[in-house]
Amino acid sequence: MEGHQGYNAGMTMLGALRSGQWPSLLAAWLHFETSFVVWLLIGALSVLIAKEFALTSTQIGLLVGVPLLGGAALRIPVGLASDRLGVKRTGLMLLLAEGAALLWAWLSASDYVQLLTVGLLLGSAGASFAVALPLASRAYPPAHQGLAMGVAACGNSGAFLAAYFAPRLAEHVGWHGVFGMMVIPLAVTVVVFAVLVPANERGHESGPKSPLKDVLRDRSLYSLSGLYAVTFGGFVGFCSFLPFILYDQYHLDLVTAGSITALCGLGGSLARPLGGYLADRRGALRVLGLSLCVIAGLIALGATFLDRPWSVSALILGVTAMGFGNGVVFRIVSDRFQQHIGLASGVVGAAGGLGGFFLPVWLGILKDASGSYRVGFWLFAGAATAAWIGTVSMSRSVGPSSEGFRRQRAH
Fold first, then answer.
1. Which CATH number, 1.20.1250.20, 3.90.180.10, 1.10.260.40, 1.10.287.600, labels domain 24-195+215-410?
2. Strand, helix or coil at 310?
3. Angle CA(122)–CA(192)–CA(189) in degrees, nearest 5?
4. Which of 12, 16, 193, 231 is most buried, taking the most CB atoms under 10 A from its CB?
5. Which residues contact 145 (CB under 8 A, 6 or more apart)?
6. DSSP reduced 3-state for 86
7. How far from 279 is each of 12, 23, 219, 285, CA to CA, in Å?
8. pLDDT tens-digit profile of 83-126?
9. What is the largest CA-CA distance in the chain?
């Protein structure tokens, strides 16, 4: 009976994926996957970079956070461009910008200041989010948008690819060479994206003339932004800084630290479409509240027993739960802002990138100040707890599912 139910669930998901334009979904996933690898390359190579330039925890925290800050700054204008110029044109421009940053890192970045500038330019890769998710959302009917956006966004498995392969490649070609090698898959992505995305794929033109003002007046936007700053900010922040934490806290070698970080990225990426799928079927706010509670508990557990190696397991599970929560949050966004999904995803995604920037920065600063990462972990667990309380409040005011947001907007 259980096997039959699992088979039916699999067929249901397959049927949902067939209900829309799967080439556009594939293009959205590949754009985000490749860009996510580019976005987190500095974090994946942080141990080697820190050794070469003798960086402190604060300096390396800032360096791995700068690409996340650049991505946060670009997501709103890129989201607006996706709505007005079309995702194809916007997506191709981002890929070309990523290529320029990779070439600079490969050929000439030779000091800390240059690397900070390269990191800021690599933020263009983080803005891929505001292209991939609107493309996936528009390619599927509302009943299956949670799953479609979850599949596209599981391109954040690029965190796994960056953390696993970059340290291994760096042992043979050096960390500069890894940036150069990344130009090849980026070029392939440019070709595939150009072929699969229809030339007339544009945003909705029938909405208000000033969508930015309308979206920014919606109070739920700020609630969703705060939630995403915890879930996605936590996911990308930990995936960026964890290699250095594992090296510094547990004295693991570069490859082992990268492998553990890769496991975190893989878990969070696989959990994201599941989060979107369950949000479609069980109610987004109910599922989100449970995932935030789990995140807070696991990170607090990891902080409490930080000096014990098994606490790494709690961190891996916590990052996986963050990936699950990411899929749920964007199920709500797709319901609430259907006509301006590009701009809304840009705003909410910017908050997520900003949360990701602050996480490694405060972890590095507090480590240098206190001698331990424990305080920074506790601070994040507190933020997750506050987000859980906020989700419970929203659930009581609009109902436990994302449909409540849709009904509220109709009034």
1. 1.20.1250.20
2. coil
3. 20
4. 231
5. 136, 137, 331, 334, 335
6. coil
7. 15, 24, 21, 8
8. 778 888 899 999 999 999 999 999 988 889 999 999 999 999 98
9. 61
CB of 237 within 8 A of CB of 60? no
Q: Interhelix angle for 341-370 vs 374-398, to 10°? A: 150
Q: Are 395 and 326 in contact (CB under 8 A)?
A: no
Alpha-carbon 125 to chain mean position = 11
Q: What does the CA dihedral 211, 343, 321, 126 come to, rounded to 10 degrees? A: -160
Q: Count how many residues are written for the chain.
A: 411
Give the residue extent of every domain in the chain: 24-195+215-410
Q: What is the dihedral angle through the alpha carbons of 102, 129, 198, 191, rounded to the nearest 10 degrees?
A: 20
Q: How far apart are CA 114 and CA 103, in angstroms?
A: 13
How many other CB atoms are there within 10 angstroms of residue 195's CB atom?
9
Query: Contact at 8 Å (CB) between 271 and 321?
Result: yes
Q: Which run of H or of E encompasses 222?
A: helix 219-250
Tell me if 356 sits within 8 A of 233, measured CB to CB: yes
Q: Which two tokens stand for residue 177?
A: 């060479």
What's the CA gap between 318 and 368, in Å, rounded?
24
Q: d(Cα 411, Cα 399) in Å, to the nearest integer?
A: 15
Residue 249 CA to residue 316 CA, distance in Å, equals 15
Place of tokens 């190579």: 45
Helical spans, DSSP H, in 40-144:
41-44, 46-53, 57-84, 87-107, 112-121, 123-126, 129-138
- Is the pTM higher than 0.70? The answer reads yes
Q: 243-283 pLDDT, tens per residue?
A: 999 999 888 998 999 999 999 888 888 887 778 778 777 77
